[in-house]
Design brief:
Layout lengths: L10 E5 L3 H12 L3 E6 L10 E4 L1 H9 L3 H7 L1 E2 L3 E4 L5 E5 L1 H7 L4 E4 H12 L4 E3 L3 E6 L4 E5 L2 E5 L1 E4 L6 H6 L7 E12 L9 E4 L3 E7 L5 E8 L10 H9 L6 H6 L7 E7 L7 E2 L2 E3 L2 H4 L8 H18 L3 H30 L4 H13 L2 H7 L1 H4 L6
Parallel strand pairs: 1-2, 1-12, 2-8, 5-14, 12-19
Antiparallel strand pairs: 3-7, 4-7, 5-6, 9-10, 10-11, 13-16, 13-17, 14-15, 15-16, 18-19
Length: about 375
């Protein structure tokens, strides 16, 4: 297999139109690649949840010209930290200090981020309803067979999520997703009274997070230690009220503003370490490579980093397999420690026995804010490759 492109212009097939896939497609298209994005769903852009974009993710979006639009549509974080169920602060995050040291931190509706990425990508690249069936190595590239036909490329990127088809086809011995031990509910609501303060409230084996968005909307999530596939016999909103209805304000008001039909519930899974993110002319990005628990708020940001890093390395190395080898080395060294940290945080924050809860809360109260601020550095100091 040579490193030369098929027919002159280099071609890439991106499998999956999530954050990683769209960002990678934009970055490659801006560099002159012919890009085709195959998405099995018939619509792109999940509704009903928000996400945090930290300074590292925003730097990545700036490199593809999407950062300004994101900041215009997002709400800058104002107040955050951790409380107990009565509302008393256990630890407060100095958002101004985070911004001064590391850069912007914003919250955005997922649908709005997808709209921005689609608009930046432009027309003609995205193909919906294209379920991938095979990814075959050919003499001078890769052939992708999907429900809409066949696509030939120099490069295939698997950005198709935690249950990646590309990973299943070309990493056959890789372990599958494992359950983290807790489930999560999510919704976006518009409460009657404005909510200006965000953060997370910690209980015994339960958490409730609040993140204000633009235009008076609020994204919230709740989590609880439960077996996988547990059923809420009286409905999900009733279950949330039972668990969180007597916690501090504005949690009851947020639950009162919730439409049961718009409430999402997903068990939390993560991907164990796999043996590399790249093989030949095929690479994995985002959750397809390193799905992690959401405790650091870094999933979307690391997906953006993957895409930007890969595009830069493909500029640096004309030979595609060489570029992917370096991508694998750089990204695994970057991501795997954060995966482990997020897992440990989840264990600590979801503790249930009363002595462990007491110890956790005491540690949070006694940790100096300056120590917590320095602790963000491993995640937030990333810079796009030149």
């Amino acid at each position: 297999m040579t490193g030369e492109p098929i027919g002159g212009q280099r071609r890439a097939v991106v499998v999956g139109a999530g954050i990683a896939g769209l960002t990678a497609a934009i970055a490659l298209r801006q560099r002159g690649w012919q890009v085709e994005v195959l998405e099995r769903a018939t619509a792109v852009g999940p509704a009903g949840s928000g996400l945090s974009l930290w300074p590292n993710g925003l730097r990545g979006l700036d490199t593809i010209g999407a950062g300004t639009a994101v900041r215009e549509q997002a709400l800058s974080a104002t107040e955050a930290g951790m409380r107990d169920t009565s509302g008393r602060w256990l630890a407060r995050t100095d958002i101004a200090a985070v911004r001064d040291r590391y850069g912007d931190l914003v919250m955005i509706h997922r649908t709005e981020l997808f709209d921005i990425l689609r608009g930046t990508l432009g027309a003609g690249a995205l193909r919906l309803g294209a379920a991938v069936r095979a990814v075959d190595i050919t003499g001078n590239g890769v052939r992708v067979q999907h429900s809409l036909g066949t696509s030939d490329a120099d490069l295939v990127l698997g950005a198709d999520g935690i249950n990646s088809t590309v990973r299943e086809l070309h990493w056959p011995g890789a372990p599958g997703p494992i359950y983290a031990g807790y489930t999560a509910w999510r919704a976006i609501v518009t409460p009657r009274a404005p909510v200006r303060s965000g953060g997370e409230t910690l209980g015994r084996g339960e958490r409730f997070g609040i993140a204000p968005l633009r235009d008076g909307r609020v994204y919230f999530y709740g989590s609880a230690n439960l077996p996988a596939d547990a059923i809420s016999p009286d409905g999900e909103l009733t279950e949330l009220r039972r668990r969180f209805g007597d916690w501090h304000d504005p949690i009851p008001a947020l639950l009162d503003a919730t439409d049961p039909a718009a409430l999402l519930r997903h068990d939390i899974y993560e991907l164990p370490r796999i043996a590399g993110y790249a093989r030949g002319r095929i690479a994995l990005l985002g959750d397809a490579a390193h799905a992690m628990t959401p405790n650091l708020g870094q999933g979307a940001n690391l997906a953006i980093e993957d895409a930007i890093t890969l595009a830069a390395l493909l500029d640096r190395h004309r030979d595609i397999p060489s570029a992917l080898t370096e991508y694998d080395r750089i990204r695994r060294a970057r991501v795997e420690p954060l995966q482990r940290l997020s897992r440990r945080m989840g264990v600590a924050l979801q503790v249930s026995p009363a002595p462990a809860v007491l110890l956790r809360d005491v540690i949070l109260r006694l940790t100096p804010p300056s120590v917590a601020l320095r602790g963000l550095a491993p995640a937030l100091t990333w810079e796009p490759p030149r």
